[in-house]
Amino acid sequence: MTTANDQSLNTITSERRRLTNLAYRLLGSLSEAEDAVQETYARWYALPRHHRDAVEAPGAWLAKVAARICLDVLGSARVRRERYVGAWLPEPLPDSTPWTTGPTGGATVDPADRISLDESLGMAFLVVLESMTPAERVAFVLHDVFRYSFAEIAGIVGRTPAACRQLASSARRRVRASRTPTTPAAHQAGIVRNFGQAWQAQDIRALIGLLDPDATVVADGGGLTRASLRPVEGGERIAHHLTRLIAKAPRTATVVERTVNGRPGLAARHDGATVAVYAFDIAGERITRIWAVLNPEKLRPWATG
User: Fold this and answer.
1) For residue 234, how many C-alpha atoms fall within 13 Å in the half-sphere facing its CB?
2) End-to-end alpha-carbon separation of the chain, Å?
3) Three-state DSSP state, 285
4) Which of 62, 97, 103, 139 has CA 20 to 30 A from 169's CA?
């Protein structure tokens, strides 16, 4: 027989995935998101039992606390990232399934899954979020992605609902300004596949044909591995740069197709370990941006991917 306590525990633990979904978008780091969720649960269980029993909507309470924790983390993270060696990129979400296999059908998609497939998971979206103030980021993500009211957000960020509306509006303008025309996923996959093949073949002409003339590559090595400290700009320069990299790579290194933040991407592997993950932004027939995450601390979840 299931007791009321069992039901309450199940309700609380079932929120973990949704909270992680929220915290990842707010922080851009899976490891920091998991820490924030862990702290959220620690605060819940630190409440006296009668206080917990008095909470009418535990899920809402947990989400509010998680968002506040993330807001605090974002404030301190800005200082840490100013001291970061080179560019700081969001931590790519691991997915060991090659995207060539395609999605499986027939499963019911719950709200958390649906969110994980939309634009808010993409690397382009997360990179734009990094340009926002912590309050802008929290207000925008909570309202536009997770559909919180501005009255609810006001209680989290400590501002008026009107001020939160302005924060979200400012953030929304940044997102719109950075957005590129949507390219169908199947078409993206074909372009990324051709890029991977041309790269491994060191076919500079083919690479140039796949890259937008104004394309940009941003690499994140965190000072822990060799990576360009500044963006590499221009399709031709990028093609030559990438060709030099692949020429210097060990013969046993491979480039494999992987889903990166819900989009077709690539991963470089050597001796059974993932040493780099590549996410792409594509407009029409050309690759406009490549984000290369080489920081080994950000690739720990990809160790066996």
Assistant:
1) 4
2) 40
3) coil
4) 62
249: left (phi over 0), alpha (psi -120 to 50) or beta: beta
Task: Give the tokens for residue 117.
Answer: 């497939």
Burial of 256 (0-12, 13-18, 19+ CB in 10 A): middle
CA 270 to CA 200: how far, in whole Å? Answer: 14
Span 4-39, pLDDT tens digits = 554 466 778 889 999 999 999 999 999 999 999 999
How far is Cα 263 from Cα 21, in angstroms, rounded to an integer?
17
DSSP string across 107-125: PPPPHHHHHHTSGGGSHHH
142-166 exposure pattern, b = at least 16 Cβ within 10 A, e = fewer: bbebbebebebbbebbebeeebbbe
Can you tell me whether residue 4 is helix, strand or coil?
helix
Tell me, what amino acid is at 127?
V
Please state the pTM of the whole predicted model. Answer: 0.87
Amino acid at 75: G
302's CB contacts (< 8 A; 6+ apart) are: 92, 94, 96, 267, 274, 277
Asked whether 275 and 269 are in contact (CB, 8 A), the reply is: yes
* Burial group, residue 296, by CB count within 10 angstroms (0-12, 13-18, 19+): middle
